[in-house]
Amino acid sequence: MSLAALAAGCGGAEKGARSAVDEGGNGGGPAEVGKPAPDLSLESLNGKGPISLEASKGKVLVVDFWATWCEPCRASFPKLEELSKRVGDKVEVVGISVDDEKKGIVEFAKENGATFAIGWDEGHTIASRWKVEKMPTTFIVDRSGKVRFIHGGYHDGETKEMEKEIASLFEDAPASDADTRVAKNDKEPSTHDVKSDSSDDAHGSSKSAPTASASNDEDEAEAAPPPPKKKAAKKAAGKGKPTKKGGKKATKKK
Question: CA 117, CA 63: separation in Å to the nearest integer?
């Protein structure tokens, strides 16, 4: 795949390439929400060791596909760096460049403040396998290796939404509750559609895994017993009957 083909939409995989790459990985197919993540295996260019599903086993993995010629990627890089520092050791952030040439990738990452692992998808095999259609595209993979969220493009506040999504993967709450926290882009993200024949920007989105609704706790809980009845108070005096007042008998005036 040539750089010109990707640059037509400012990034991503070639139209017919994804069907040609079906082998390998967790399931071998494209990256889809709720399904095992496809194969991912390459060496980092900045001394961070191997980038793979196996190396990140037991962690939440954030996989960001980007390119040096993608303007939204320049905006997202510093924010991804901040995210990688906030989320801790149980989460790993990796950036995968789809540039045609290796030269300049590490320099670009340094210029934009990235210290997380940077890899190079030579020949765009991984981008094709993961069904990358926009630049940047970010996948969030849970600890069991399933794709849980996909962000196509970038807008202000995107990484805060990602952080909430990541946090939901560590909670004991039902999956349906976690999925309600999926990013809803009030602002249209900056993206580049790789299927487009022009350089116009296309709009991205965030997706989450579909899950069954949580059961109603109120239906399952036993009904609480009614409070005990209060004993009826005895009447002090009947209507019209005399009562004592000041030692003398008095009758109620009609």
Answer: 10
> Hey, what are 74's tokens?
């320049």
Q: Using the structure block, give the residue that is written with the tokens 């094709």.
A: 128
**Which is catalytic among the residues 40, 73, 94, 150?**
73
10 is catalytic: no
| CA 215/CA 224 separation, integer angstroms | 19
Catalytic residue, from 17, 70, 93, 127: name it. Answer: 70
Tokens encoding 66: 């980007």
**3-class DSSP state of 234:** coil
In order of start, what are the domains of the chain with their CATH numbers?
Answer: 3-208 (3.40.30.10)
130-177 per-position pLDDT tens digit: 999 889 999 999 999 999 999 999 988 899 999 999 999 998 544 443
CA–CA separation, 5 and 82 (whole Å): 32
Helices (H), 130-227: 158-168, 175-179, 217-220
Cα separation, 177 vs 185, in Å, equals 19
Highest mean pLDDT among 150-164, 171-185, 187-201, 205-219: 150-164
Kindly state the percentage of the chain with pLDDT values over 70. Answer: 56
Confidence (pTM): 0.62
Mark whether 70 is an active-site residue: yes
Give the model confidence (pLDDT) of 103-119 as tens digits: 999 999 989 888 999 99
3-class SS of residue 5: helix
